[in-house]
Amino acid sequence: MEQSGTSALLQGAVQDLASDVVSALRGGDHVRMSGTETMDDVEAGLTLAAVRVLGADALLPHVLFPTPPAPDVLAVFRRTVEAFPPRPDAAPTVQWSHWAMRRTLLRLGMPADGPPVGPGDTEPDAGWLEDATWQMMTHQLAVLAPLAVPGEDSGVARAARRRPVDLARGFVRAVRRRDWQQAAGAGRWLTLIDGVPDTLGLETGLDFVELMGGTDPRVALQVQAARVVRAAGALV
Questions:
Q1: Partner of 11 at 20 to 30 A CA spacing, among 19, 52, 206, 216?
Q2: How many CB atoms lie within 10 A of CB 88?
Q3: Alpha-carbon distance 10 to 104, whole Å?
Q4: DSSP string for residues in 44-79
């Protein structure tokens, strides 16, 4: 019962943080997040865990617009990165998510403690995406949607750019399966890469995904991120 209650609290914290990110993406505002210094241990733990679940997307508005985050927000994000280093045997998605968070800190001028992250640093391996089926690739890319940021090159982004048709197939499959989070994450990648079939109707598809995603702010976050990226591309 205690574990179930903790899971529910974490889910609520993630939803609240995602809602705040969506609001900031829609209004070009700052992400709001209380500093953990004034929280008790439970609240602080939930805050850090929620940031870890959203990953680099927790600061996405400040990357896309860009605007400097409040010092408290940046401090919580950095503390999360330092508190949850991936184990050596961690899954590739976990390693890439951590890498993306460290890259976000670097973009915002506040690198985390530990080995530096920069152009000369070794990325996690992305070879597992090369041989993945289009279904598995779509699933993994949706999990790694926080890496779908304009101007950010990575092994994951290069893998996505090489397989736009497969990713489009995965987007359609996710919609048919009513997996709105996967569809939204795949749609965000499709907004960023070239070679997407015009017949996909991506913009309409994303509107549908957002509608069917209902009140899930994590779906709305991915759809709104895709719209910001699309709008920025139209201005170039």
A1: 206
A2: 6
A3: 23
A4: HHHHHHHHHHHGGGGGHHHHHTT-PPPHHHHHHHHH
Residue 152 Ramachandran class (φ > 0 left, ψ -120 to 50 alpha, else beta): beta
- Residue 5 confidence (pLDDT) above 80: no
Residue 107 pLDDT class (50, 70, 90 cuts): confident
State residue 92's pLDDT score.
94
Distance CA 105, CA 162 (A): 27
Q: What angle do CA 178, 179, 180 make, to 5 degrees?
A: 95
Closest listed residue to residue 138, CA positions, set 177, 170, 105: 170
Q: Which of 194, 192, 202, 147 is nearest to 170 (CA)?
A: 202
Asked whether the predicted pLDDT for residue 229 surpasses 80, the reply is yes
